TrEMBL record:
Job description of the protein: Involved in mitotic DNA repair and meiotic recombination. Functions in the recombinational DNA repair pathway. Essential for interhomolog gene conversion (GC), but may have a less important role in intersister GC than spn-A/Rad51. In the presence of DNA, spn-A/Rad51 enhances the ATPase activity of okr/Rad54.
Gene Ontology terms: cellular component: nucleus
Pfam families per UniProt: Helicase_C, SNF2-rel_dom
Entry annotated with the keyword Cell division: yes
UniProt xrefs under PROSITE patterns: HELICASE_ATP_BIND_1, HELICASE_CTER
Region (Disordered): 1-72
Record's protein name: DNA repair and recombination protein RAD54-like
Length: 783
C-alpha cells in the first residue's frame, strides 16, 4: 500500500547528495538526470522501487506507468489524467510553435565576414565595461547593425590630447534595427542627418512625406529612441532629453501603443487623451515640465504625446522648458501660417522639428512654404522674399500668356526651390510595399442608376432654377454660390440613395420645386423603410456583401463621406444580419481604440467596419479586413487616398481588394476625373459657397450638371480616346510594368464580368447594374 513519506535525500556512496526526492500525494518521485524513479512505500518504510529509464522503449515505459497507477488512490489517478492531458496539449500545440521559434532563432542570413573582427568571445557589453577607450552603446560590428554615424579614426596621440572630443559610432538599438526594412533604414538615416545638422548646416528639421503604410511611425520611434540614448560625442550626454509628439486626437493612443509595442518598459511615454479636464491636463503638462527642468540626464517620462487641440489650449504650461524634438503627425494641418495652431507651435522653444505627412502640399506654393519654414525657419527666406524669389516667377511662368523668358525663369526658380527643399524632405511611394505585403487589387466600378433614381436626377438638372443659376454664372451675374453648393450636394447624395434627398425635396425651396412629385406615394424618409433597390450602387453593395459573406471569412471596411449614408449602411447590415462596428466623428478617442482593436481581433465576429472618411481617414490600422469599399468620391484625392490605405498596410496577411463605386455618367465620375487629372487643388474641399466660386470655372460648373447618355458605359473611359479598346472590348492588355500607381489609361478596361479578377464582383455584375470596371494590381499575383 502506498504511504505518504516526508521528502528525503538520496545519497551517493560517498555520502554526498545526488538528487532530491519530491513527494506528491502517495507517490514519491525522485529526479535523477533523465530518469524517473518512483517508490511504492509500505508500512515499514520499504516497498518496490520502479525506475522509468530514459532508454526504456514505449511498451516497457507504459507497463511501468500502469503499475504505478494501479497502486495509486483515486485522487492520484485524476492527477495523472490531468498530467497526461497537459502533456498531450504540450506536444500537440506548443511543440510545433517551439520548433518554429527555434528554427527562426537559428536561421541567420549570410553575412560577409569582417576581416577586422578579432573573434573575441566576450560579449560587447563586457567589452564596453572593460575597455579604457570610448565605445558606442551598441556593437557596430554585429550582424545587420544599423549604423547612423561612423566616427573618424583616431591615433593614440590624438586620443590623449583630445579626450573630450572623441566620437563613437551611433548604432540603432538592435531591438529596433532588426525589424527595419531597407527604406525605413534610409528614412531614419535621412532624419538623423537632418536633425544633427549634417544635411544643411545650421538647420535641424525635416519633413517625412512617405506614402501611407510605409512605417513612418516606426521610423520616428527609432529615431527618437536613438537621440534619447546616444550622441556621437562620447563625453556628452544624449543628443536630446525629451520629445513632444503632437498629432490628431484619434492618434494619441495609437502613438502610445506603438511606442509600447516596440520598446516596452524601455521607454515610458506620457499620453494626454482628449476628454480630460483642463486642470488635469495642466497638471500633467506641468509634471512633464518639472521632469525636464530637474537637471537629470534621464527622466521618468521623456516623451509627451498630445493632440493639436489640447496642446494649443495649454502650451503656455511648457513655456519654460526646452523641447529636444517636436514631431507633428499629419503635419499638413500646419499649411496655414496664420492659424492659431501654427502660431502656437512655432513659438515652442525647439530647434529639432519633424513634420510627418503622407499628403504633402505642393499645389499651393504658400502652403508649401509654411511647412518648410516650420521645420527649418528661414531656409526659403521670409514670406516676402519667398514671393519675390519663387512664388511670383513660378506663377507667372505657368500663365498661358507667359513669354518664353517668363516660362524659362519660372522653371528655373521651381527647380531651384525643389533642390533646396529636397535636402530636408524625403518621400517614398507605396510601391515599396509590394515587396512585403500580399497583392492588392484596386477596382473602379461604374454602376448605372436605377430608373426612378435617374428620373429624379434628370428632372433636377433640367429644372429652370438650375438653368438660371448656370446662365447667371455665365453672364457674371447672380453667381448663386449657395444654390450651386446645394445642387452639388443634392446630386452627390442622390447618387448614393434617393432617401437621402427626400427631405430636401419636401422643404418647399425653389431649387427643389416639383421634385417631391417624382417620389411614389407613401415614400418615407424614415430609415426603417429603407429599400436598397432604389439605388444602383446600393444594390451593388448589397449583392457584393452577400457574396463575400456566403463563401469567405473576409471582413469589409465600408466608407462614405456622409454620416447619413453610413446610417443606411447600418440599416442594411441590420436587415441582412451582419455584425458591424461604426466609427464617425461623434465617437470618443477611447471608444475608437476599443472598436478598432476588437475589429482587428480574428476571434471576434464583426463582419463590417462602417467608417466616416473624415473621422477615420488618418492613421487607422484596419488590417482585420482585407476588402474596402469607397462608396462615394471626395473632391480631395488625398482624403480618398488616406481612407483607402486603411487595410493594405503592415500586418496584412491576405490579398486585398479595394473598390471605388461611381454612379455611371453622373457628377461622381466628374469628381473622380478631377482627381485623376490632378485639376483640383490638394486642399480643395467644397464646403462653402466661396469655395465653389473660387475653385470652379463656369465651364467646370456646366460640366458637373451634365448627365451622360444611357449608352455611355463609363464617362471617364470615354474621355480617354482609348486605343486599346474597340467595340466595347479591350483588345490589347495594359503594359506589363503597369500597376495601381499608373494612369488609368494603363489599367485593365472591363466591359463584362468574365475578365474581372474578383469573383465576388463578377457574381454581382448584373444585380449591381455594373456597366464598366477599371482594375489594376499592386504586383503580379503568383499563379
Amino acid at each position: 500500500m502506498l504511504k505518504r513519506r516526508a521528502p528525503s535525500v538520496l545519497m551517493k556512496k560517498n555520502n554526498q547528495p545526488e538528487t532530491t526526492r519530491l513527494s506528491t500525494g502517495r507517490i514519491s518521485k525522485k529526479i535523477k538526470r533523465n530518469d524517473e524513479i518512483y517508490q511504492n512505500d509500505d508500512s515499514n518504510g520499504g516497498g518496490e522501487i520502479i525506475c522509468i529509464d530514459s532508454s526504456d522503449d514505449e511498451e516497457t515505459r507504459a507497463r511501468k506507468e500502469n503499475k504505478i497507477r494501479d497502486n495509486s488512490e483515486p485522487g492520484m489517478q485524476r492527477l495523472h489524467q490531468l498530467l497526461e492531458q497537459c502533456t498531450k496539449t504540450l506536444f500537440e500545440k506548443a511543440k510545433p510553435e517551439y520548433n518554429a521559434w527555434i528554427k527562426s532563432v537559428l536561421h541567420k542570413p549570410f553575412v560577409m565576414p569582417d576581416a577586422s573582427y578579432d573573434g573575441h568571445s566576450e560579449t560587447f557589453l563586457q567589452m564596453r565595461y572593460k575597455s579604457r577607450d570610448p565605445m558606442p552603446l551598441h556593437d557596430p560590428k554585429a550582424p545587420n547593425a544599423v549604423i547612423l554615424y561612423t566616427p573618424p579614426e583616431y591615433d593614440e596621440e590624438f586620443k590623449k590630447a583630445h579626450k573630450d572630443d572623441i566620437e563613437v559610432h551611433v548604432v540603432v538599438d538592435p531591438v529596433l534595427g532588426r525589424v527595419l526594412r531597407p527604406h525605413q533604414v534610409e528614412g531614419v538615416q535621412f532624419m538623423f542627418d537632418c536633425l544633427t545638422g549634417r544635411k544643411i548646416e545650421n538647420y535641424h528639421g525635416c519633413i517625412l512625406a512617405d506614402d501611407m503604410g510605409l512605417g513612418k511611425t516606426l521610423q520616428c520611434i527609432t529615431l527618437l529612441w536613438t537621440l534619447l540614448r546616444q550622441n556621437p560625442l562620447y563625453k556628452a550626454g544624449p543628443i536630446i532629453t525629451n520629445v513632444v509628439i503632437i498629432c490628431p486626437s484619434s492618434l494619441v493612443k495609437n502613438w502610445y501603443n506603438e511606442i509600447n509595442k516596440w520598446l516596452g518598459s524601455r521607454l515610458n511615454a506620457l499620453s494626454i487623451d482628449s476628454g480630460q479636464s483642463s486642470e488635469a491636463v495642466d497638471e500633467k503638462l506641468a509634471g512633464f515640465g518639472r521632469q525636464q527642468n530637474s537637471g537629470r540626464r534621464r527622466c521618468g517620462n521623456p516623451v509627451l504625446i498630445v493632440s493639436y487641440e489640447t496642446f494649443r489650449g495649454h502650451a503656455n504650461v511648457l513655456d519654460n522648458i526646452e523641447v529636444g524634438l517636436m514631431i507633428c503627425d499629419e503635419g499638413h494641418r500646419l499649411k496655414n501660417m496664420e492659424s492659431q495652431t501654427y502660431v502656437c507651435l512655432k513659438k515652442v522653444n525647439c530647434k529639432r522639428r519633424i513634420i510627418i505627412s503622407g499628403t504633402p502640399i505642393q499645389n499651393d506654393l504658400l502652403e508649401y512654404y509654411s511647412l518648410v519654414d516650420f521645420v527649418n525657419p528661414g531656409l526659403l527666406g521670409n514670406p516676402s522674399e519667398f514671393r519675390k524669389m519663387y512664388e511670383n516667377p513660378i506663377s507667372k511662368g505657368r500663365d498661358a500668356d507667359a513669354s518664353d523668358y517668363q516660362v524659362q525663369l519660372g522653371n528655373d526658380r521651381q527647380k531651384e526651390m525643389i533642390a533646396n527643399v529636397d535636402r530636408c524632405l524625403i518621400r517614398r511611394t507605396a510601391d515599396l510595399l509590394s515587396k512585403y505585403l500580399p497583392p492588392k487589387v484596386e477596382l473602379i466600378v461604374c454602376s448605372k442608376m436605377e430608373p426612378a433614381q435617374q428620373a429624379i436626377y434628370e428632372f433636377f438638372i433640367k429644372s429652370k432654377k438650375i438653368q438660371r443659376t448656370l446662365s447667371g454664372s455665365q453672364k457674371g451675374k447672380n453667381k448663386g454660390g449657395q444654390s450651386t453648393l446645394q445642387a452639388i450636394t443634392f446630386l452627390k447624395k442622390l447618387c448614393n440613395h434617393p432617401q437621402l434627398v427626400y427631405e430636401m425635396c419636401t422643404r418647399g425651396e425653389e431649387i427643389f420645386e416639383g421634385l417631391e412629385e417624382m417620389f411614389p406615394a407613401g415614400f418615407s424618409k424614415s430609415i426603417r423603410n429603407f429599400e436598397p433597390l432604389w439605388s444602383g450602387k446600393m444594390k451593388l453593395l448589397d449583392s457584393i456583401l452577400a457574396n463575400i459573406k456566403k463563401t469567405t471569412d473576409d471582413r469589409v471596411v465600408l466608407i462614405s463621406n456622409y454620416t447619413q449614408t453610413i446610417d443606411l449602411f447600418q440599416r442594411l447590415c441590420d436587415m441582412r444580419g451582419y455584425k458591424w462596428v461604426r466609427l464617425d466623428g461623434t465617437m470618443t478617442t477611447k471608444k475608437r481604440n476599443k472598436i478598432v482593436q476588437s475589429f482587428n481581433d480574428p476571434t471576434t465576429n464583426e463582419f463590417i467596419f462602417l467608417l466616416s472618411s473624415k473621422a477615420g481617414g488618418c492613421g487607422l490600422n484596419l488590417i482585420g479586413a482585407n476588402r474596402l469599399i469607397m462608396f462615394d468620391p471626395d473632391w480631395n484625392p488625398a482624403n480618398d487616398g488616406q481612407a483607402m490605405a486603411r487595410v493594405w498596410r503592415d500586418g496584412q496577411r491576405k490579398q486585398c481588394f479595394l473598390y471605388r463605386f461611381l454612379a455611371t455618367g453622373t457628377i461622381e465620375e466628374k469628381i473622380f476625373q478631377r482627381q485623376t487629372h490632378k485639376k483640383a487643388l490638394s486642399n480643395c474641399i467644397v464646403d462653402n459657397a466661396e469655395d465653389v466660386e473660387r475653385h470652379f470655372s463656369v465651364a467646370d460648373l456646366k460640366e458637373l450638371f451634365i448627365l451622360e447618355d444611357e449608352s455611355v458605359l463609363s464617362d471617364t473611359h470615354s474621355k480617354f480616346d482609348c486605343k486599346r479598346c474597340v467595340g466595347n472590348e479591350q483588345i490589347e492588355p495594359p503594359p506589363k510594368e503597369a500597376d495601381v500607381a499608373s494612369d488609368l489609361a494603363d489599367w485593365h478596361h472591363c466591359y463584362s464580368p468574365r475578365v474581372i479578377p474578383d469573383d465576388k464582383l463578377s457574381e454581382s455584375w448584373d444585380r449591381g447594374n455594373v456597366s464598366f470596371v477599371f482594375y489594376q494590381r499592386s504586383c503580379k499575383v503568383q499563379s
